Amino acid sequence: MANNKQIKIMEVCGTHTMAISKYGLRKHFKNTELISGPGCPVCVTPSGRLEQCVSLAKKQNVIITTFGDMLRVPAVTSTLEKEAGKGADIRIVYSAYESLETALKNPSKDVVFIGAGFETTAPLAAFIIQEAYKKKVLNFSVFSMFKTVFPALEAIASSKDLKVDGFILPGNVASVTGYKNFAFLAEKHNIPCVVTGFFAKEIKEAVNMLKLLISSGKAAIVNKYESAVSAEGNLKAKEMLTDVFDLKDDVWRGFGIIKQSGFGIKDKYKAFDAEKKFKLKPVKEKKDKCICGDIMKGKALPANCLLFAKACTPQNPVGPCMVSSEGVCAAYYKYN
Ligand code: SF4
Q1: Most buried of 28, 107, 144, 239, CB within 10 angstroms?
Q2: Residue 180: what are its φ and ψ, rounded to 5°?
Q3: Are 70 and 52 in contact (CB under 8 A)?
């Protein structure tokens, strides 16, 4: 590869997106464009799924528990925050386990934990579902919007219109899954990858390592986060995921349906599956001017959105990429 060829390196994790913006790393590397991928779980959740959360919040006798990021993400007709303003009982929790405790303290109410995330947070949801099952906490359920990151990476790596030269892989996801699960990017798609942590020094090292691999034509996976990531990952967490969830086809904002990419709750635990318990019907996605979908596919930047920093700001977010603390638009707004 000629030395002055522009290369594209994608960071796959929202925490990396924030760190790269915060440390000003996008301008740090010569002939290198750092683009963002589908690593913010709230951002890849489509508005139709969020509308199902809104419909849950409107139900009588229901307490919604969720992480703070979910509140302001626009669904089709409303947000959880607006529903809270109208009187819905919506409580922010700081750990998934608090949701189960809320159910135990409120036996006359139905408590629903709304969760979105990847392999980093899905095991915690699996754990509380197992606990609810063991303790027979039948007034508790989970609305699962958890996803596995691998099929989305497969979609990006196979994309004909987006050529990614290298991936910065998320140390947090890899600590659960093991780095071996990402090996297909190098072996099947010939794209080098580096697993790394979240400090500026670690990210810089990862990019330099990727540049070296790319320039030498070596498609390998390198684990630079050995303190937390092994080849096999966290076997206990993986066991919990397998026990509680089945992979199902799922809709990703911007990508549409990605096969076998969503963590659906297994039949064994169906009493704790909010979707089944409340017989929620699918809702179509809202069409709007937000281009979060393209941004998370690495095809556009926030500056390409006509609404960025005008109609859409962190105070008045139009799309999820501006709401989430890991969102690309929020990162660009705050640091660029
Ligand atoms: Fe969506 Fe707002 Fe980002 Fe535009 S600036 S892509 S509307 S979140």
Answers
A1: 144
A2: -60, -30
A3: no
